């Protein structure tokens, strides 16, 4: 069984952590390449200087911009790798939300998406930052890290039994 996931930041094609999506594709945990999409509603997307300008989507529908990203269909094991990589349900990391997007064919798809999972105080701080509609490493200073890559490889090996 697969899950549709909307990705908007460092996991997108050509961005610093796209190697993880590429690896899941090679291992057949993602069957098709990522497809372009945009959120149907507006959301605040920021890059936080306190976290090396990592892109953060805040679950405040109706604020911000429509967000450009990609849709992937990922296996349950592949989703587990991404959940671990994104720190699912850990304070100050990410939680899953449901989100509607318009795909490259103009069709609506319901997906899951990683949104910020922090305190209300932190959310208020993030909402004071400039909102963007599309994250690219070209216009942001985050470039990934060897620690991220090592962590991603370790959890992939653990979860996917490589």
TrEMBL record:
Record carries keyword Lyase: yes
Domain Gamma-glutamylcyclotransferase AIG2-like, residue spans: 5-121
Keywords: Lyase
Catalytic residues as annotated in Swiss-Prot or TrEMBL: 86 (proton acceptor)
Reaction equation(s) it catalyzes: epsilon-(gamma-L-glutamyl)-L-lysine = 5-oxo-L-proline + L-lysine
SUPFAM superfamilies, alphabetized: Gamma-glutamyl cyclotransferase-like (SSF110857)
Parts of the chain that traverse the membrane: none
UniProt-listed InterPro entries: AIG2-like_dom, GGACT, GGCT-like, GGCT-like_sf
Keyword Lyase listed: yes
A Gene Ontology cellular-component term: cytosol
GO terms of molecular function: gamma-glutamylaminecyclotransferase activity
One family name in Pfam for this protein: GGACT
Gene3D superfamilies: Gamma-glutamyl cyclotransferase-like
Family note: Belongs to the gamma-glutamylcyclotransferase family.
Protein name: Gamma-glutamylcyclotransferase family protein
Lineage: Eukaryota, Metazoa, Chordata, Tunicata, Appendicularia
């Amino acid at each position: 069984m697969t899950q549709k996931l909307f990705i908007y930041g460092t996991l997108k094609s050509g961005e610093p952590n796209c190697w993880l999506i590429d690896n899941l594709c090679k291992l057949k945990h993602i069957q098709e390449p990522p497809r372009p999409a945009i959120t149907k509603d507006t959301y605040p997307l920021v890059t936080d200087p306190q976290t090396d300008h990592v892109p953060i989507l805040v679950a405040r529908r109706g604020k911000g911009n429509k967000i450009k990203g990609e849709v992937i269909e990922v296996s349950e094991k592949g989703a587990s790798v991404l959940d671990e990589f994104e720190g699912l349900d850990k304070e100050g990391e990410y939680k899953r939300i449901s989100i509607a997007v318009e795909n490259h064919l103009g069709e609506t798809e319901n997906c899951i998406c990683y949104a910020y999972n922090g305190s209300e105080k932190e959310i208020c701080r993030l909402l004071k930052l400039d909102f963007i509609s599309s994250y690219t490493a070209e216009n942001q200073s985050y470039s990934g890290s060897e620690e991220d890559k090592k962590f991603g490889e370790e959890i992939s090996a653990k979860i996917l039994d490589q």
